[in-house]
Amino acid sequence: MSCKELIAKASATHCLTRNELIFLLKDNSCSDLLFAAADDIRHRYVGDEIHLRGLIEFSNICRNNCCYCGLRRDNHNLTRYRLSQDEIFALAQHAAVNMGLKTIVLQSGEDMYFDQDKMCEIITSIKSLNVALTLSIGEKNLSEYQAYKAAGADRFLLRIETTDKDLYHRLDPGMSWQARKQCLDDLRTSGLEVGSGIMVGLPDQTIESLADDILFFKQIDADMIGIGPFIPHPDTPLKNAAGGTLELSLKVMALTRLLLPDINIPATTAMETLASDGQTKALQAGANVIMPNVTLTQYRRHYELYPGKSNTNYTPDESLKVLRDKITSINRFVAADKGFHHRTKNGKA
Ligand code: SAM
Ligand code: SF4
Description:
Elements: H1 3-13, H2 18-26, H3 31-46, E1 49-59, H4 85-98, E2 103-108, H5 116-127, E3 132-136, H6 142-151, E4 155-157, H7 165-171, H8 177-190, E5 193-200, H9 207-219, E6 224-229, H10 246-259, H11 269-274, H12 278-283, E7 289-290, H13 297-300, H14 316-329, E8 333-334
Parallel strand pairs: 1-2, 1-7, 1-8, 2-3, 3-4, 4-5, 5-6
Helix pairs in contact: 1-3, 2-9, 3-10, 4-5, 5-6, 6-8, 9-10
Bound molecules: S-adenosylmethionine and iron/sulfur cluster (SF4).
């Protein structure tokens, strides 16, 4: 089949084989066609509204040593910070009440200070603001995920990073791919919406493994998938790596939209870091979510997963204004609801 026929097949059936995915990922002559098809499927299944999720980066302290990440334990060039529960609540309140955001995302390194009791207190306080709440705080056990759900949390983001197990074990020393997969299974059991995703352009990552990643998203029946280019950080072991490209990241994202038509897919910050129109391109190639950063500038600059991540010249309110203008400029609009994953019959695996 030609790439045009394969894209038509994916749009109609939401299924592609591994070889078909590899073919489309390798053939760049069809990228624009692929982006247009993903944009069309996005429009048909989740509409033209864009869900804004206010991101609070509440601690950059991490017990892990992921080779790609600027927050890794062994990076001693980073000023570490941890927000108090009152500070976290104040940011969430500002995002909900003054900025009108309907979802709050709490993200951090794996900071063991925030144990189950503290997290549940934070969750309960934020849920009083009538917002949806997403957590992105790393690997926990089933009873912790269940406790977060009982306290009111709605969703959890845990990227699998790559389905190439050998690559994962090389890049995430001391961690286990099976344990991470178990976390995703436990999240499903807990009743939280399950978000996962990968980085594109990790050293030695193959096109074949990216095809496996996309099939993995379908296999776990994800509710959300975040895909971003890997961007090397100078204070990590991968400082000399080439990093990912915007085009390949967009292609993986667009194929994910074709295969999982009704899920939530963010236009990621890493895409915007590579190109000033990266998020706009993503929104026109399958994405329907943006996560504006509502962390105060003084802390945000220290949440440096990769260089150039945060536009520190803008306050959160100014960033939101820029974002709203961008959304309007492409004839889309900001959603009024909380943006849960509404599964459609055809969207089911
Ligand atoms: N610590 C939690 C975890 O690992 O799940 C949540 C925060 S972690 C910083 C969020 C995501 O940042 C990771 O899942 C990874 O995909 C991404 N990330 C880390 N370093 C990156 C880099 N150098 N370039 C692009 N994305 C990166
Ligand atoms: Fe820690 Fe997450 Fe960064 Fe790994 S990716 S070092 S777990 S913050």
